[in-house]
Amino acid sequence: MRKRVAVLTSLALLTPLTQLPLPVAGAAEDLASRFTLQVMPDTQFYARYGTEAAGDIFGSRYGTNPFNSQTEFIAKNHEKLGTQFVTQLGDLVDQAYDRASWDIASDAMKVLEDAHVNYSTLPGNHDYDMYGATSAFQTYFPNSRAAKIPTFKGRFESTDIYNSGQNDYGFPGQTVESEYHIFEAEGQQYLVLALGFRANDDTLDWAQQVINEHPNLPVILTAHEIDAIDGDGTVHYSEEYGEHLWDYLIRKNDQIFLTLAAHNHGAGYHTETNDAGHQVISILQDYQMAYLGGNGLMGQLQFDLTNNQLEMTAYSPWVKEKKTEQLTSFDHLLPEGKGDSYVINFNFADRFKSFDKDWTKGDENDPNYAEILKQTLKDGYTPYTITETDKPKDSEDYAHVDGTVVHWRPGQTKYKGQQLADGASAPAGSIIPDVAADNDMRRVAYRHGSNAEQVTFSKDKHPLSADGGSLRFEEPTAKEAVSWFETESGAAINNMHFDNGYTIEAFLKLDMDWNGDDNGWSNALVRDADGTDMNPEDPDGDPIQMLGVSNLRELRWYSLGNNGDGFSNWSHEVPKGEWMHVAVVNDPKDKSVTMYVDGSPILRDGYGPLGMAGEGYKWILGTSEWENQKVDGWYGNIGEIRIVDHAIGQDQWLTARNTAPADTKPGAGQGSSDGSSTGSSKHGNVGAFLAGTAFGALGVLGAVIALIASLGGALGDYAEQLKGMLHL
Predict the structure, then answer these.
(1) What's the pTM value of the predicted model, to 2 decimals?
(2) What domains can be seen in the chain, in order of their start residue?
(3) Which position among 172, 225, 236, 656 has the lowest Cβ density within 10 Å, counted as fewest Cβ atoms?
């Protein structure tokens, strides 16, 4: 604050502030009766990978933990954002037996307590030990701790969970905690029921009693599991529990107007009509399978009582904290998916009049908190961008690396010696050249259900790829109606074991219509052998090496090492319709296998395998295999793929330009051209501006204005006005 006052004082010596147009806060012009809830979905991976035993991945890479970033942001801004209550939706930790994870969760939630922010929490399935040990939830979040929160009114304990007969969990002898709160907002009270994981009917009877004791209060029901989500994004009550909860409790109680849950991976909402003929909104929000275990994503739910709207805004305070050079294409400050941020029309007075005829909105003196949230996050934030400097200048503008054993470039695919045109089919016999050696791939003859048009050449490619295009694979008409390319029987790559480690890179893109139910478990690149081929006693029908995608849109690399060990790397849930650069680095020093997606290492990596097992087995592009049968074809685009016979770092990847140094260490380059060039340009421009105006009155004023601009927000806008007026 003192810095800003000093700047404005300097300006006053030059120009009276009364003669200049002052910025007006846009949100203040839009006044209504409003308040917000903050929604914290599954935090389990923040706790798990924040421990010392797990290498404190978040702290070591970024200096902060997303869990703490969430609660610290709420604590700092709860008054500014009109926050009246915070709901944590369970799975505080990932491994219930790990006390270090509980320490992280406990410390993060204590931030809210210290800031006097009211919240509820509840246990998810990962907060219980399935092997009979005592649940640590009761140890770290006991009744005595909850009772210190002013809104807390009581708890109910059960030793059983609801058993549906399918996908059931068992937590023998462990106490399932449920609690309720009453908070006040805009002159009205709201009741929050926070139910433990799959609360049994005894617990639901207790919840019914709580509702009966407060017959005039609108009820918000939170639980770890209520909703499920289909591969196409459709949200509905889960068969395992949500449907029972609806029939037993929700539909019978008109006071329950809103539910919030996590557990099942995805985000969105659905509406149902209860027995009274009224609307019930059920919101699902779970980002644990997103980048870096959720990337700090959470939600703000704004209640606009004047305009009769509920507005959900998904956001990540942790992304805002990251350094510009650490950002990737997966860092979304404010994700814009249809299930992430949305507005629901909801007439509060009409909805509540059946149980509270006196309900009314509060004074219309609240700003638009959704807009304030967005502006607060955007102030001073520079998003990840790929600049023209980062892009290749020509087909050879990439880091050429000694030890490259194969480099397939689909952008140079030919048929009968002729380069394919954009949109042209790649018929059987088409060749993907290996520009590093003699390991070309050829499209095989058509199978029943496939044809020439199933694979086409496209100029579409990753912006950092120097290749001229990609191959697009259409969705297979049936599980086995697949098309693929393969190496020749005698290709040298078929016999390489990579005993000194390897780096495999690929540019991949899933089609926008990709669906987990229909297209899951497809692979872009595999070996033509399964576990049984390597060991007759091994029943594993998957390929011994494979790079593909799960039904949850997780990228997966599996390799059986030449030392006999195998391991699968799993990414976060990757987007559809966007190009990705995937790199997998096997380092012989520690037998680590690390996957990077768009330059960022994923969470679920491993150790053990060295090199690749297999002798004489072909490499196959465009389909998966199961028990040597070609199934589950790729649906989307495949760009260039390269394999190097040792571990290399980011400055030597295909995303680096030809001038990159060749002696970097594996995993180096968090400040690579993907991010550092944008950051350098930004700071360089400011420095040049200051240097060019260092003398004279206008120079002093220009420097001051540049300083104001660097502060961001409304003052930043003010600086732009000043520059325009003074022709700076």
Answers:
(1) 0.81
(2) 1-29+693-728 (no CATH), 31-299+313-378 (3.60.21.10), 404-676 (2.60.120.200)
(3) 172
